[in-house]
Amino acid sequence: MLNLSDSFLRLVSIMDELREKCPWDQKQTVESLRHTTIEETYELADAITERDWKGIKEELGDLLLHVLFYSRIGKEEKQFTLEEVINGIAEKLIIRHPHIYGDPANGGQVVKVTSDEDVKKNWENLKLREGKKSVLSGVPVSLPATVKAMRLQEKAKQIGFEWESRDQVWKKVEEEISELHAAVEKDQSGTPSNSNRIIEKKLTTYFIIQVQPAGTCCRSICTFFCFQFLLYPCLCYKS
After folding, report:
1. pTM higher than 0.70, yes or no?
2. Which of 37, 60, 87 is the last residue of a domain?
3. Of 25, 70, 114, 203, which residue is the least packed, with the fewest Cβ within 10 Å?
4. pLDDT on residue 76
5. CB-based contact 159:135 (threshold 8 Å)
6. Domains in the chain, number
């Protein structure tokens, strides 16, 4: 079996050869690859949810191929090289972990941390130092809505923007449900805004009590619904 370096260079060589000789690979652009990258990422997410280690290994390989593909196109467009991609993430990891490698802005002194929460706070502060306008600016616009909502709350928490207790959130959820009920009974004009606030508070509740992410909850609900839906005819037949 090849060692790590030789295995990686073999894959790079295959990617280069496909780009030069395969009509399909030659035709691809960063735009045309985008949707397949998203699809591959979701396939990895499914494998992780199912704890399918064989599937995880396979999907990671597919995503690694995409990294090489984008890097090859970037080189052709004279935008960046694979070496720059690799060195860029290596440097970022060193800079973002001053508790391990020291803080260059402070004479290389190692930053003291006592928990993973300290690490997260340092990470956000370092991104602000690098020029980010807000701790929220690093959240991708195209993230799925529930995932994005959870990430925004997680990042806001790093600077102390959070509810003090879960009781406050429960009270607010009950208040919004009452307002929604009143709006529906009256003329439904306030239904959309009330519904949005209820969803927002429920996502906050997921975050505070640290249950599985909201997106995972939604997938579980969908899976259970499909199971019930498929089982329903059988139950009707037996009755």
Report:
1. no
2. 87
3. 114
4. 98
5. yes
6. 3
